[in-house]
Design a protein that fits this description.
This protein has 105 residues and is mainly alpha-helical. Helices cover 68% and strands 9% of the residues. The radius of gyration is 32 Å and the shape is elongated.
Length: 105
């Protein structure tokens, strides 16, 4: 059998067949080289600085939640302004909540 770049040419089949990953030592070395820096950099970042990483994560999560709260408040205010316009009829202020309550059960 001849081997070239991860394939084996068998004499019987005359077609190249892919080597299993365990036999392809070049592929194993490439995978190890590619995966190690990512895992190593996270370990180096977390070693001795867990409090700082958690503080940054807390600030990011707090900012995102704050933006979601502001968006919810703006959305409900605008929705209320459309349902109950300033110069609207008085019957709308009674009818719309009643219909909504009956619709929800």
């Amino acid at each position: 059998m001849k081997e070239f770049s991860g394939y084996v040419m068998s004499a019987a089949s005359r077609r190249p067949q892919k080597l299993p990953q365990e036999m392809n030592t070049v592929g194993l070395q490439e995978n190890a080289v590619l995966k190690e820096p990512r895992a190593g950099s996270w370990r180096r970042l977390m070693t001795g600085r867990e409090e700082q990483v958690f503080l940054i994560l807390t600030l990011i999560i707090g900012a995102v939640v704050g933006l979601i709260v502001v968006a919810f408040i703006l959305l409900t205010e605008r929705f209320g302004a459309r349902l109950y316009p300033a110069g609207g009829a008085a019957w709308r202020r009674v009818l719309i909540p009643t219909i909504g309550s009956l619709g929800m059960g």
